[in-house]
Amino acid sequence: MGLKEENLLRAGTTLLDFSRERVKPLGFVALPISFSDDNIYAMNMVSVAVIRAKSGYNAILGRIILNSFGKVISMPHLCAKFPTFSGIVTIRGDAWQATWFFQITAQLIVDQLDPRKS
């Protein structure tokens, strides 16, 4: 993302990753997060933790960020909705892309656990 460590706000906390291991953030940074559909746009400034990790994702948005938009997520439908002053925004996911990213992430986990790869 082009962030420099000296521009990050220092973090005195640790996070738990998906495997329940502790991860120390490099720091925090305030970023504008925006969502839109074809007609309506919404943006919030959000403080996000920056970590070093192998992942198929650029960012993982947690409950705090999603709740700041008032988002309602439907995983089976790959759909998210949230209210704005101009109406309801509906964002639809792509099943092929979701499967592809899941496979990348699963392979990264296998590679990390495989002792032959170290």
Helices and strands in order, then pairings?
Elements: E1 15-16, E2 22-23, E3 27-36, E4 41-50, H1 63-68, E5 72-74, E6 79-84, E7 87-92, H2 95-113
Q: What can you tell me about this protein's structure?
A:
The chain is an alpha+beta fold. It has one domain. Helices cover 21% and strands 33% of the residues. It has two helices and seven strands, in the order ββββαβββα. The chain has a three-stranded antiparallel β-sheet, with no helix packed on it. The relative contact order is 0.14.
Summarize this structure briefly.
The protein is of the alpha+beta class and 118 residues long.
Supply the helix-strand structural class.
alpha+beta
The portion of residues forming beta strands comes to 25-35%
Q: Give the strand order, joined by hyphens, for the main sheet.
A: 5-6-7
In round numbers, the mean pLDDT is: 82
The SSE string, one letter per element, is EEEEHEEEH
Query: What is the β-strand count?
Result: 7
Uncertain spans, ≥5 residues at pLDDT below 50? none
Estimated helix fraction: 10-25%
- What's the shape? globular
Radius of gyration: 17 Å
User: Helix tally?
Assistant: 2
Largest sheet: 3 strands, antiparallel
Distance between the termini: 26 Å
Count structural domains: 1
Give descriptors for this structure.
two-stranded antiparallel sheet; globular; 118 residues; alpha+beta; 21% helix; 2 helices
